[in-house]
Amino acid sequence: MSAASLRRAARESVSGLPRAFWWLWTSTLVNRLGAFVATFMTLYLTLERGYSASFAGLVVALHGLGGVISSLVAGVMTDRLGRRPTLLAAQASTAFSVALLGFMEHPAAIAAVALLVGMTSNASRPAVAAMMADIVRPEDRVRAFALNYWAINLGFGVSAMAAGLIAEYSYLAGFLGEAALTLTCAVLVFVKLPESRPGPLPGSRPGSRQAGAPAATGKGAAAGTGAEPAIGLGTVLRDGHFMGVVGLSFLISLIFTQGSVGLPVAMGAAGFSPGDYGLVIAVNGLLIVLLQIPVTAFIEHRDPQKLLVVSALLAGYGFALTAFAGSLWAYALTVCVWTLAEIVNSPTQMGLVARLSPVHGRGRYQGMYSMSWAVASLVAPLMAGFVIDRYGAAWLWGATGVLGTVAGAGYWLLMRTLPEGGVVEVAEAADGGASAPVAKPLPAAAEG
After folding, report:
1. I need a surface site. Which of 269, 332, 390, 441 has the fewest CB within 10 A?
2. What is the pLDDT of residues 216-258, one digit of tens each?
3. Per DSSP, what are the bridge partners of residue 426?
4. Rounded distance, CA 319 to CA 297, Å?
5. All domains in the chain, ordered by first residue
């Protein structure tokens, strides 16, 4: 791709998105600039505190358990209380709990506060995703999710290098730095981001269709009430296609989480320092910063089935190659492989989740989707600690290859069963008004 093509792709990627999106994007960037706990927890516990890989895995698993609990609760809060209040509460409580964790010394206290950090830090995910789906037009969502993912990794790439150096001198400084930047995010949300939750149309009667809500279907429509069917967690669980996406997301998350769980433990056991790990994992963020925009421009209208299958295989076998790494350059090369999988998988899958989520159930649907990552954060550390302690890291990397193969087959089968006409989207006007629902078919291979 030429320089002119790259510039054109960059302009097309950032044009036409609302101002509120860019404030949300900025908040995401600032938050990820302070990322420390999730990335360096295992090194902190094994190298700084002297605990075993199994105990480190247990603590990080408790962090993941906190995310499991908060994902569903935050999803309901996002729909009931609003996106903005949920974000504010999550970010302010995260800042407090992260700072507190830095001062904990007793093993039980470390474990308990890690659980709290997991609950608070994951609570913002459903609100961010729902707000983004609210404020961005359906046809721009893959691009918007890609840009948000780009911000996450721009911040992560910078923070990984800085935090790796900081960790060699003071882990406490890393905890306090993350707390300060997370609190800055809360202030930014309070000052700049308006509430985006769809509300009733001006002058509408109670029970009438709300702005941005899809037309009633099923029993409500048959009765002629025009009311949107009630959406609860049971509705989400009964949605077979969506829960299939959640299950496959769990497998993919289980693989990608090894970048912050299995990889640092394996590198530490091989004699590499926290700074070495910081440099290697920074390759992940750097590549996403460089490639996310041009790759998204290339894949935006291509067949999502093929994209998801290929990304699953790249993720699984990219991590499997780690078994053969023996130098920093070799580790960095494996990171390049599975990073390409991230670049393709994340916006494609998030776009699919947004398509399958009804407007007034976005919080609950996004909460369930976030839970797949949270459950993976719970299972992956236990899996990594057990396998590395008992059998060695090579077996862990072999398992990721198997998981990637299973996920690839699952995406292929799932996408074949989606309705031919796609799912119903609602075209929302820029001023917040409602318009008629329109069919948004999933991209076909011929469109690429």
Report:
1. 390
2. 333 333 333 344 456 777 888 888 889 999 999 999 999 999 9
3. 437
4. 26
5. 17-197+233-447 (1.20.1250.20)
